[in-house]
Amino acid sequence: MKTITVIIRARPGTEQTMREALLKVAAHVRANEPHTIGFHISQDASDPCVFTTYERFADEAAMDRHNGSAAVAAFFETANPIMDGEIVFHTCNEISTK
Predict the structure, then answer these.
(1) Dihedrals phi, psi of 43, to nearest 5 degrees
(2) CA 68 to each of CA 39, 54, 97, 98: distance values in angstroms, whole numbers, following the listed order
(3) In 1-98, where does DSSP find H-type helix?
(4) For 12-63, how does the pLDDT look when each residue is reduced to its tens digit (9 = 90+)?
(5) pLDDT recorded at residue 29
């Protein structure tokens, strides 16, 4: 199982735009990506500018299809101009789950 954890900071005042862009990706995943096992989005409880995604893929091919999708490209078109700093991005091999 491949996983990706992403931490994104939106510029103050653009939180809703970032939230909506992430939710569009989630809708695409639900409708079109059967091998994306999980796609979780969180918004920090104390700082609404900070978003985290946790993404689980059946294999590397599924991860590559997701990352190469039009939905992810559209997300970055929206997100890039409103990001506050660099994205923190971790691609991992899952070693335990409940």
Answers:
(1) -120, 130
(2) 15, 17, 26, 29
(3) 15-32, 60-67, 70-79
(4) 999 999 999 999 999 999 999 999 999 999 999 999 999 999 999 999 999 9
(5) 98
Write the pLDDT tens digit of every residue in 57-94: 999 999 999 999 999 999 999 999 999 999 999 999 99
CA-angle at 50, arms to 61 and 75, nearest 5°: 45
CA distance 44 to 62: 27
Distance CA 87, CA 8 (A): 5
Helix axes 70-79, 15-32, angle to 10 degrees: 180
Determine if the pTM surpasses 0.90.
yes
Q: Starting at the edge strand that comes first in sequence, how are the strands of the sheet with 36-43 ordered?
A: 36-43, 50-57, 2-9, 88-93
